[in-house]
Design goal:
The complex is a heterodimer.
Chain A: H1 2-48, E1 54-58, E2 61-66, E3 69-80, E4 85-93, E5 98-105, H2 119-122, H3 149-172
Antiparallel strand pairs in A: 1-2, 2-3, 3-4, 4-5
Chain B: H1 2-9, H2 22-28, H3 32-55, H4 65-87, H5 89-95, H6 106-116, H7 121-151, E1 153-156, E2 159-162, H8 174-190
Antiparallel strand pairs in B: 1-2
Helix pairs in contact in B: 1-7, 3-4, 3-6, 3-7, 4-5, 4-6, 6-7
The chains are: A alpha+beta, B mainly alpha.
Enzyme class (chain A): translocase
InterPro entries (chain A): FMN-bd, Ion_transpt_RnfG/RsxG
GO biological process, one term (chain A): electron transport chain
């Protein structure tokens, strides 16, 4: 009887100590982690809208301002790739053409599908109307990555569908 | 005592001799930066879990030792994971899921069970450092080969060279990892570095 109580007490105390340690470390790092996320997001916005000075918005739709004048929107697009979820920030001009895109999250195969983050691929989206956002083999204007057709078309579909969904949400408002 | 440290690097090298922790070794050895980041995380976790488990070795009852070890290991892994997210977000992103997976890395539980739970603190710490360093060096060797052949260049923390040949992407894919680890293991055995 005594032995079995010892087991319970030791394991419970170890778990309790661990909980205390982790919650205090979480409290220390939490604001820093939130800050890092925001810094990263702002960097991404800045790289699409170099002149942006301010932004506001929620639910994946952001209005971008430069000196208090609205210069466009940034939309969050989510989709599925070959290796997992893909998250893309889509910059949209006032005339609804694509200003530029930035891949926020992807887990495609390194060296193949992961090339969707490279400039030459993402730059293809800039300045195009949404109707052109299709791979060339599907009568669009985007070159696929050699050997990574699935990832390329996943990126294209994510941008297209995210754009359509968010634009619809904006118009309904 | 010094043997506890050096054993981990060659004689009981976790990757090439014990063949433990191969999953993260295969997955993150695509670049030297990742290898160093992963190695450092494993050294940290191994060091503190061995230290704690060795300190508590006479307190923890035999029947519940595995859950106790896992809770201790998971605590340190979570600390590493939170610290990486807060202070080294770029590295955290490239190591991805493999940081939380250190919890189930058999090297760490293996050392807790086979060494730290039976030996005094000083020897357990040396063992952790040796094994951790052995793991890190193995990862670095594998990742040098894979990065060089797979991307046609070598870079460490942003400084690097690109070599004038066309890279064989195969080497940074999972199959390339198996091939490199297998060939290295064979080579080390052949030249007699390991038995």
């Amino acid at each position: 009887m005594k032995e079995s109580w010892k087991r319970v007490i030791v394991l419970t105390s170890i778990v309790a100590i661990s909980v205390v340690v982790l919650s205090s470390i979480y409290n220390i790092t939490e604001p820093e982690i939130a800050k890092q996320k925001e810094i990263k997001f702002e960097e991404m916005l800045q790289s699409i809208f170099p002149l942006a000075t301010d932004y506001s918005g929620k639910e994946g739709i952001y209005e971008i301002y430069s000196d208090n004048k609205r210069v466009g929107y940034a939309l969050m697009a989510n989709g599925k790739g070959y290796g997992g979820d893909i998250e893309i920030l889509v910059g949209v001009n006032e005339d609804k053409t694509i200003k530029g895109i930035k891949i926020l999250k992807q887990t495609e195969t390194p060296g193949l599908g992961a090339k969707i983050t490279e400039r030459w691929f993402t730059d293809q989206f800039s300045g195009k109307p949404i109707g052109d956002i299709r791979l060339k083999k599907d009568d669009g204007k985007i070159d696929a990555i050699t050997g990574a057709t699935i990832s390329s078309s996943a990126a294209v579909d994510t941008v297209y569908e995210g754009y359509m969904e968010k634009i619809k949400m904006m118009e309904e408002k | 005592m010094i043997k506890d440290f050096t054993n981990g690097i060659v004689k009981v090298n976790p990757i090439f001799v014990l063949a433990l922790g191969l999953c993260p070794a295969l997955a993150i050895s695509t670049s030297i930066d990742n290898a160093i980041g992963m190695g450092a995380s494993v050294i940290f976790v191994l060091l503190f879990s061995n230290l704690m488990i060795s300190l508590l070795r006479n307190v923890i009852p035999k029947e519940v030792r595995i859950p106790c070890f896992i809770v201790i290991i998971a605590t340190f892994v979570t600390i590493v994971s939170l610290a990486l997210q807060a202070y080294l977000p770029a590295l955290n992103e490239s190591l991805g899921i493999y940081v939380p997976l250190i919890v189930v890395n058999c090297i760490i539980l293996g050392r807790a069970e086979a060494f730290a739970s039976k030996n005094p603190v000083s020897r357990s710490v040396l063992d952790a450092l040796g094994i951790g360093l052995g793991f890190t060096l193995s990862l670095i060797i594998i990742s040098i080969i894979r990065e060089l052949l797979g991307t046609g260049g070598i870079s460490v923390f942003g400084y690097g060279v690109t070599l004038p040949f066309s890279p064989a992407t195969f080497f940074i894919m999972p199959a390339g990892a198996f091939l490199v680890i297998g060939l290295l293991l064979g080579l080390f055995k052949r030249v007699g570095v390991i038995r």
